[in-house]
Amino acid sequence: MNPIRRRHGLLALTFALLPMAGCAGPLLDSLRERRAAAGESSEGELSGVFSGRLKGDVPMPAGARLIRDVKFGDDPQQTLDVYVPANARGAPILFMVHGGAWMLGDKAYLPVVKAKVQRWLPKGYIVVSTNYRMSRNPKVLDQVDDVARALALTQQQAATWGGDAGRLLVMGHSAGAHLVSLLASDQALIRRHGLQPWRGTVSLDSAVLNVVETMESKHYGFYDRVFGDDRDLWLAASPFHRLGTVTAPFLLVCASGRPDSCPQAEAFAGKLRSLGGKATVLPVAMKHGATNTELGEPSAYTESVERFMHEVGLP
User: Fold this and answer.
1) Residue 4 lies in a domain
2) Is residue 26 situated within a structural domain?
3) Which of 88, 186, 194, 202 lies most in the core, judged by the most C-beta atoms within 10 Å?
4) What is the CATH number of the domain that holds 193?
5) How confident is the model at residue 101 (pLDDT cuts 50, 70, 90)?
6) CA-to-CA distance for 115 and 272, rounded, in angstroms?
7) How far apart are CA 130 and CA 150, in angstroms?
8) What is the pTM of this model?
9) pLDDT tens digits, one per residue of 75-86
């Protein structure tokens, strides 16, 4: 194919995918691989395009405030944002981890935070949205360590924001769903960071809860960049294999049209239940990105997630 024509075609596809870029679904991942193979764009350039299109001010209730870029480490990516409702006192906390194929995304992208802030701040919640270290060759175990650090800081600082560290929900989408599921499953990591128990974990459409199964089956090529060919890493990065004791209740949302998402959610939930834990699988007839972007909008889906929140003792 003519290089100019190929470049224009890929650019057109990039902008066609911008509305879903905040969730970086499988199509975006394939696009990234094609661009990299053609030597046409770095991850930073692609992320820069997305950043310009997907960031903006989130409309918030009167009196609410945003605390930007709270540091939990020395790296510039180790920061989180805190959305605080007016007159917060003993407020419950929603702690959110964005997706993006472990290589892309941002805590401030509107598809990550807008609907959640607009839904739950008026209900008295503090919403925390965190970043973690990303690169073209991501180190997944460093990323989950970052999520643990961010959560530890949130628990330590909750009272200064008017929050209650004992009433906290952990949530992640896509790659972020994998990371929060891994954190919730890894008791050694929880102990190492001195994390307090949280009320529940919501995994929004991860298809890699069992990394070994994923990597030994047909899979997206970008997974090879993330997980490599080291079986020891697969085991260390696999929530299913790290799950060795009872953890906080899980809600596992899965897009029913994806071939791996719901089967992996069911298998993970089954293992957790066999250990005496609680897990609910919520299949939804939605696209991968919509499980994130539409959560918080008025819908039966949002109400289902809120029912889980009520079941774990949150308002």
Assistant:
1) no
2) no
3) 202
4) 3.40.50.1820
5) very high
6) 30
7) 7
8) 0.87
9) 999 999 999 999
